[in-house]
Amino acid sequence: MTSARRGGNPARPGLAGLAGLLLIVELLPRLRLVNDRFLPPTSRIAAALADEVSTSTFWHSLGETLYAWAIGLVVAVVAGVLAGLVIGSVPLLRALTASTVEFLRPIPSVALIPLAVLLYGTQLGSTLLLVCYAAFWQVLVQVLYGVADVDPVAEETARSFRFSAWGRVRHVLWPTALPYVFTGFRLAASVALVLTVTAELVIGAPGLGKEIATAQNSDAVATMYALIVVTGALGVVINLLTRTGERRLLAWHQSVRGEVTV
Amino acid sequence: MDVLKKIGSAVALPVLLFAGWFLLSDGSASFYAPPLRQILTAFADTWQPERLRADVAPSLLRLLAGFLVAALIGVGLGVAVGLNRRLRAVLEPVLEFFRAIPPPVLVPVIMLFAGIGDGMKVIVIVFGCVWPILLNTVEGVRAVDSVVLDTARAYGVTGPARLTRVILPSASPQIAAGLRQALSIAIILMVISEMFASSNGLGFAVVQFQRSFAIPEMWSGIILLGLLGFALSLVFRLAERWALRWYEGLRATRRRAG
Amino acid sequence: MLEVKGLRKVYSSGGREVEALRDLTFTVDNGDLVCLVGPSGCGKTTLLRCVSGLLMPTSGEVRVGGRPITGPPPGMAVVFQEYGRSLFPWMNVRDNVELPLKQKKVDRSRRRQLVDTALDAVGLSGAASAYPWQLSGGMQQRVAIARAVAYEPETLLMDEPFAAVDAQTRADLEDLVRSLWQRLEVTVLFVTHDIDEAVYLGRRVVMLSSSPTVVQDELVVDLPAERDQLRTRADPRFVELRTRVYEQIQLAKRAAAG
């Protein structure tokens, strides 16, 4: 990104890299270096992808995946932000919950898979349980960092001007925590995608992950690769969107700060 | 007094939650949420030494093997890519793509190549873990301070010493961040790969309990997984804090200086 | 002897060319202490990077002892302005000073002796096991000087080394440089933007013009060899010399502006 100024198209070497990957995947099975039942050449994967996108099942599954991802993410972000602001701004709560957060956070969400299966079977609820659990901690921890980052001088200034509690949250706490909220959102967005696809793949909840499992079970290897490429592309798009959004927001935030301090 | 207060606030909520769960669930007739008393009994009965050896040890060994191999490959390739601007420009989108693939979908792919044995599970963990390590190493190596590099050159610190004494230490905070991400992916993949196809391991055991409706045992497995995740992250954090104590100090000094 | 002949450096980026150094020629005799002084932004750091072999000039050459420089030469030590970034934060003071000696394959006991002597010479014997970031700015720059001294250089390059320390520390460090120079009989090239510092320290002062840089003027500082922060700076001859340097720099600035 930083080399963009150096003239020429900065994306070109990257595109060459991607083209190289496609070429290698085409050649490996064609030259019999890899069994094409394990890794079909690019052209066959592309053909399978073309077949997939012409079916309504594919679009339906994509929709289900995105739906579960979005719902889980929104629930996790709202819950994480609210919990983070409340816990973070009350020192007593913060001290009391620190150890519990530290304990619950590293628990792998996939440990909950059996529980999710018992409670919701192969329905959306299973996916949501895993997605919300995993994404919630990402947001919570970032918001807690953000609240801790509040400048004590700003806080005291607000107090000295007799800001109400709400005013302090609105004008001091929230603006400071906002960039952290967005970082949490970005992290949660990619974790949520991973867990959405995982739940579908392992539990069989409807979505792209389930389609991958189906393709695997029916030996449709090219289709399986095609669907994996789709999940990867989805991940790249989500990363790019959240990163761009974050950069815009942070740029705005820092420029405002710069004006205030000068 | 201060120490007591600290310990008190750290212990209070967990004790309260635990006691709450214990008491509230004690009369539970729910099939899915058995009394905690029952779960704890199941825990003690289930996770006997031979069971730990048969199910937990293989899981942990696969996890460690996969994580270490991924760390070696990730740091090695990351340094090579990070030091070479052209290589970086060519490979970055490819690496970003691989990182964006949800790691568990690699399980069916690698099953094709490596069957369903230990090899498959280790390869799955390596393949899933390597990307965050690699990309963070690239980023860390790329960001080595230009004055640091000038100093090394001016004083003849070149060759292997440049790598081990200058570039790797300088990139180590970023590498550690990559390793931390990779560790949680490794745990996920350990469990998933065992749920998919296995004859032993923690993930396998927990799914078996669930399928045979041995609910208290399933709960005890979930708790054990949770404890394992917590313990691994604790060990990692301690190791990180020890290895990067200079970095913590540096950051604290900078923060104080404003 | 250090010879700079017809040195020119043009940076080109994105089709735009910036001429940092136009045509620089000067020499530094063995054992001399020469201060380079010029208005800010006059390419002093570029010049020093060319002399130290960290940067290849566009044309012209730098010779040390008659041999042209193509990379950092062995008998040369550099003290950078950014002490905080030039010292490696992951090593303690002793390791920082010792690392270049290890690279030079100096044996262990000699290394120990050199490090101890150097730290003693800058008054930091007690801080050997501290990390650089635990020290004040002035002390950090002393460590950087100790590292240069322990390296046993024939030529010592200093790039505005005291620009970022407070005035009192600065005076102490100036006296330290003078005394080390006299004791070790090294050739010193000292770059600064501070006219008083240049006259106080140097045996010769080379004045640079604004960018694109040429040599504006040179003068010999005919003050007694024993210098003292109070008396030397009050010496009428000192005042006379600094006035001359000041006038030349102003002239250079005006020429650049007009």
Automatic annotation (TrEMBL), chain A:
Keywords: Cell membrane, Membrane, Transmembrane, Transmembrane helix, Transport
Similarity field: Belongs to the binding-protein-dependent transport system permease family.
Domain annotation ABC transmembrane type-1: ranges: 62-242
Transmembrane residue ranges: 66-90, 111-136, 187-208, 220-241
Gene Ontology CC, one term: plasma membrane
Subcellular location: Cell membrane
Biological processes, Gene Ontology terms: transmembrane transport
Protein name: Nitrate ABC transporter permease
Annotated PANTHER family: ABC TRANSPORTER PERMEASE PROTEIN MJ0413-RELATED, ALKANE SULFONATE ABC TRANSPORTER-RELATED, MEMBRANE SUBUNIT
Record-linked InterPro entries: MetI-like (IPR000515), MetI-like_sf (IPR035906)
Chief location category: membrane
Signal peptide boundaries: none
Pfam families: BPD_transp_1 (PF00528)
Organism of this sequence: Actinoplanes siamensis
Membrane topology: Multi-pass membrane protein
Automatic annotation (TrEMBL), chain B:
Biological-process GO terms, alphabetical: transmembrane transport
TM spans (from-to): 7-24, 60-84, 105-134, 182-207, 219-239
Subcellular location: Cell membrane
InterPro entries the record matches: MetI-like, MetI-like_sf
GO CC terms of this entry: plasma membrane
Keyword Cell membrane: yes
Chief site of localization: membrane
Keywords, ordered alphabetically: Cell membrane, Membrane, Transmembrane, Transmembrane helix, Transport
Occurrences of domain ABC transmembrane type-1 (ranges): 56-240
Keyword Cell membrane: yes
Membrane topology: Multi-pass membrane protein
Signal peptide: none
Family label: Belongs to the binding-protein-dependent transport system permease family.
Protein name in UniProt: Nitrate ABC transporter permease
Gene that this polypeptide is encoded by: ssuC_5
UniProtKB/TrEMBL annotation, chain C:
ABC transporter domain segment(s): 2-235
Statement: the UniProt record of this protein carries the keyword tRNA-binding: no
GO terms assigned for molecular function: ATP binding; ATP hydrolysis activity
InterPro entries: AAA+_ATPase, ABC_transporter-like_ATP-bd, ABC_transporter-like_CS, ABC_transporter_ATP-bind, P-loop_NTPase
Keyword terms, alphabetized: ATP-binding, Nucleotide-binding, Transport
Gene3D superfamilies referenced in this protein's UniProt entry, alphabetically: P-loop containing nucleotide triphosphate hydrolases
Family annotation (PROSITE patterns): ABC_TRANSPORTER_1, ABC_TRANSPORTER_2
Entry coiled-coil feature ranges: none
PANTHER family from the UniProt entry: ALIPHATIC SULFONATES IMPORT ATP-BINDING PROTEIN SSUB, TAURINE IMPORT ATP-BINDING PROTEIN-RELATED
Record-given protein name: ABC transporter
Taxonomic lineage of the native organism: Bacteria, Bacillati, Actinomycetota, Actinomycetes, Micromonosporales
